[in-house]
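Protein modeling request. Please complete all fields; requests missing the sequence field cannot be processed.
Requester role: graduate student
Desired output: 3D structure, token encoding
Chains: 1
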Amino acid sequence: MNVTSLVFLALAMLAALVFQRLPKRFRNVWLLAVSVAFLATWSWQFILVLFAFGLLNYGLAIKIEASSTRKKAWLTAGILFNLATLFVFKYSHFYLPALERLLSRAGVEGAGEGLKILLPVGLSFLVVQAISYLVDVANKRMPAERNLLAYLIYIVYFPKLLSGPVERARQFLPRLEAPLRLDMKLLERGTYLVLSGIFRKIFFADALFRMIPESAFTTPLQHTGQDLVFWLLGYAFALYNDFAGYTGIVRGVSLWFGIELTSNFNLPYFSRNFSEFWTRWHISLSNWLRDYIFFPLSRGLMSRKTAWMNAAAVAVPPLATLLVSGLWHGLGWNLLCWGALHGVFLLAERLVGLVKRPIPPQEQNFWQRAFGLGLTFTLTVLAWLPFRMSLPVAWQYLRGMADWVKPDRYLIQAYLQGTTPVQAWFPLNLPNPLLLLLLALAVAYDLLLNKKGSERELGSFGFYARILLMVMMVLLLLVSLFADSAAPFVYQGF
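Delivered output (494 residues):
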């Protein structure tokens, strides 16, 4: 079921109303039932897989807590189990062809027809949540959860099931014990997040995705350089608004149940360096990578007092952390390259910081802030190339864009046609001005949020503004009737 659909929103609102009217002792039972029903709309097999996954991690955490001498061994076993689960289901395309060949050689009938393993929705997010839970129990940051009902809700809670946010058990489970009281202020805030998310998804993400032809990502050299430049910008803002839209919708729906989910975005394209970018983009996953990959690696390497290890403590953590991020998104050289690029960007920042003390943001002048923002944005957008396509195609795309700014051909053309050099270098015959308009509106929308705050409450608006927003809500819900046929959220694929 698409979370932008009117059916989903109506059923979620109805389920939230029932939840709020139930006695406290029945609320978690209802919440689990609603989550299972939502999961069943995708596949009943998912229910079996995710419940088995949850039960095994539930037992492992109790075993880790109870063990005094073999705690590390049980923790290692738990981490390996979760990684193996991710590998078996998510990366089946990597090993199934080889398995098919082996079975065929062994004479197993039907092996050549193709083996398939169904990937449960949200598994990538559940695996990192499960690993953090086991690590936190082992490090005594939280006790192992004995309430099986509460733990299963943590696993399959429907607003965060498909694409996060990545929630820590020690933060999420207490919210089940004492959910926020649903009052008008909380309802308005949740509704605003839902509306904002639908707006981002339908009017920015889906519209921009539709304007980019698939051939741009398969045969880019068939298109002009200027088209490729603007399509890449369109893809960057479409991807951001797609994921941010999803996060806004599910956080708003969760607030109807009185449960606060982690904010996942904070205007990432306004970052002035890559360290700041990764505190603004996919915040819940970035914080997870920081706490469970970056910091442990840094502490482990810095504890060894050698020049070699000191150098490794600077270089290894950012590179390893972002490589893990790339692998988490998928098993492929292109995603590994995307993670490596961001790792190199972060490493370059660290090295520059060792040579010259970074200027604090509050002490930077306009040009320094503008340079940092422009450089970070440009490199971030270029790094989306291997994220979206294979490395050879990404290289072709980059070559195609470079052709637009190569002066030689255009200078000759300028000389022969008598046009000015500037006009010849940058011919601006835009095929789709609507794309530029949407990009401008997307930037303006984020600028407004940057000024007013991304979760402004409806109560802060005047009377007529609130009436206008209510009218917009009705219109958006009517538009969402057609959203079931819209493109799925990109991060549902991870």
